[in-house]
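Deadline looming. Please check this record:
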Amino acid sequence: MMRINQAIKAIKPHLKIYLSPNSQYYAYKCYLQDWENWVNKGLVDELTFQVYRDDKNSFIAGIEKPAVQYAMTKIPLSIGISMGTTISPVHIK
């Protein structure tokens, strides 16, 4: 991954590598996305963390995970919040 990142940046130095993963555990287990390591190695420039929960405590627990807190110290990080769909809205309780 580092070589790919370097090759891309050599061609387009101002290009931003952006990622929108699930929790570190889920992303790695299901998709082999080790995004915390990628952030640590400087391979990701910005991150939107997907916190699609339907209750406040679970939402807070998601954004308090160590990988999320670590990423916040390294790169710009935003939080993705699911509002559901028109047919099935999500209400945070």
About this structure: The beta strands are 18-19, 46-50, 77-80. Residues 9 and 15 are 7 Å apart (CA to CA).
